[in-house]
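Appendix C reproduces, verbatim, an entry submitted by the partner laboratory led by Prof. M.T., so that reviewers can inspect both the input and the predicted structure.
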Amino acid sequence: MARLSCAGRTCILDSSPWVGELMNLVRKVVDAGTPILGVCYGHQIIARSYGGDPVVRISPTPEIGWVEVVQDAPNPLLEGLPKKFYSFQSHFEEVQKAPSGFVVTASTPRCPIQAYYIQGKPVFGVQFHPERNAAEGQQSIDSKKTARPPVARDCIFGDGKAESIFSEYVAKTIFSNFLRQRGHRK
């Protein structure tokens, strides 16, 4: 089982040699039938590995904070969650077009591809951060507000509201569903 997460300050459009090597590795792992959960950059790099540069972009409307995610279609990873749920977001890049064989299953008004899976494979991507708890999310919001230059206020959501909208159930459900994928390996 593999989980791909954020790559720090690396932009999804970076053309460094290591990014090409990572995309080759992603394709090998997916082709081997290994369950994968891509979070944020992981979500983006899986899509880029199969669709190239045209499927990812710098987001015209970044999301930082607690954003309501809407499930638009069934997804084994999100099974058991309500149709609408909050999760932490921190992204300036995004998947803009799903590669062939990818099924888009969740969105927000600013980011239409919040979750997907690859048909016939135990491979999932989420743009949001289910692993972030309320305190970690608020720390991230605070750091973005004080960064130089600071993040635009219209990109920050749920500032100071994490305690009332954060639900541990979201992370527990997503990671439990992912761990069930072990049996789907080739």
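Residues 2-6+14-184 form a domain with the Rossmann fold fold (CATH 3.40.50.880). Additional entries are available on request from the coordinating office.
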